[in-house]
Write a structure and sequence with these properties.
The chain is an alpha+beta fold and about 375 residues long. It has ten helices and ten strands. The chain has two domains: about 150 residues, no CATH class; about 220 residues, no CATH class. Strands 8-3-2-9-1-10 form a six-stranded mixed beta sheet. Strands 4, 5, 6 and 7 form a four-stranded mixed beta sheet that branches. A hairpin with a 2-residue loop joins strand 2 and strand 3. The two termini are about 25 Å apart. The relative contact order is 0.18.
């Protein structure tokens, strides 16, 4: 080791060149690894934030409203009834359900719509020109509860005032059907009014709607149903479970009522998720190509430098052989000399990065630094043998 250090001091320019070259290799490798770690972290963050929407549609995936979704299907999405091993409630959140039934009031046809939130019906969206005016103490949270409250149109509220009907409630009378259902009366507290296109629709909480349907002995049929995946990591589990109840939307099924026992499909919109995964794969592929290029460059450069180093020291090698030093001894001393320069350079280059990056890159440095050392050693073997 002492002699190796002396020899390094005799050739300061060469030692410095090898040291700097090794440091640059380490910097390049560290930058690649840091970029890869940053891309992975960025991907993880985006992966968690991407919203995977799941919408019940017809078999072609073209229609998501007026689907006549039976209770056994929409119960899969709600807590309690849909929390079993075959349910979807534990995987899905932000469930938006809308159901509707017809009734007559003052000789005119109206619709009672049960919704889980304002987002369940596009007619209530502000971007579609709807404005909502809540009474004191009421708000969006009304639809998340079970209370018998409702939202009526401004036109209907004006009519109630003009005709001296109760100002704070709305009475609904459901007539008995020919085949099912019984006569039922219910009074809903008016929680607010809306100004929009659906003038003849009375909105109430979904849970209240279910209660009304049950008391009136009517099936709680849903018109539309959608939800959001809670954890994107459960995407494959969702596909597996949904496959028991839904078909996959297929435009070729136009005009077909039933496919393999299913008449509804579940459209899982994971396009943005797939794009994020593909972007990460592309980034990793670029890093692999760059790392392979550095691998080849370091090996070739090491072989050339090793060759030139031995060639410039022919006289020293001849003198060592005259003194009785074996080829193995000469090879070992030169290998140690170059390894010392290479390892020192890689260590110096790696020290530029924060400890978290450096430790994460340590296996990367060792693996990618190997061809540099082996290149030097290969060059020396070519002249020593």
């Amino acid at each position: 080791m002492g002699y190796t250090w002396i020899r390094c001091r005799r050739s300061p320019l060469f030692t410095a060149a090898v040291f700097l070259f090794s440091g640059l290799i380490a910097l390049a490798l560290g930058s690649l690894q840091r970029g890869l770690l940053s891309a992975q972290s960025h991907y993880d963050e985006i992966y968690r934030q991407i919203r995977v929407a799941c919408t019940v549609t017809n078999l072609t995936g073209e229609q998501s409203n007026y689907l006549n979704i039976p209770p056994r299907i929409h119960a899969l999405f709600t807590e309690g009834t849909g929390s079993g091993p075959d349910g979807l409630a534990d995987l899905l959140g932000d469930v938006q359900i809308k159901g509707a039934l017809q009734f007559s009031w003052e000789g005119r046809e109206f619709t009672l719509a049960g919704v889980t939130a304002l987002q369940a019906d596009p007619n209530l969206w502000p971007e579609n020109g709807c404005a909502i005016f809540w009474n004191e103490g009421a708000g969006d949270w009304v639809f998340a509860g079970k209370e018998l409250k409702c939202l009526v149109s401004e036109e209907l509220m004006k009519e109630l005032r003009d005709r001296e009907f109760p100002k704070d409630s709305f009475a609904i009378h459901l007539e008995a059907g020919d085949l099912w259902g019984r006569e039922y009366d219910v009074e809903l507290e008016i929680a607010g009014t809306y100004a929009g296109e659906a003038e003849k629709t009375i909105y109430c909480p979904w849970e209240a709607y279910l209660e009304i349907c049950q008391n009136a002995m009517r099936g709680a049929i849903a018109d539309s149903l959608s939800a959001t995946l809670k954890d994107n990591g459960d995407l494959e589990r969702l596909r597996e479970r949904a496959g028991q109840w839904f078909a996959v939307p297929d435009a070729r099924l136009s005009g077909v009522y039933e496919s393999e026992g299913f008449y509804l499909a579940l459209d899982i919109n994971d396009a943005w998720l797939e794009k994020a995964q593909q972007d990460l794969k592309n980034s990793m592929a670029v890093n692999r190509i760059a790392a392979a290029s550095i691998f080849a460059l370091s090996a070739c450069a090491g072989a050339v430098v090793g060759f030139l180093t031995i060639r410039s020291r022919k006289h020293e090698i001849a003198l060592l052989r005259t003194l009785g030093t074996t080829n193995r001894g000469i090879y070992g001393s030169y290998a140690m000399e170059q390894a010392l320069c290479v390892v020192s350079g890689i260590a110096a280059g790696g020290a530029v990065f924060p400890p978290r990056i450096s430790f994460a890159c340590l296996p990367f440095f060792i693996w990618r630094g190997f061809p540099l050392c082996s290149g030097f050693i290969f060059g020396k073997i070519c002249l020593l043998l």
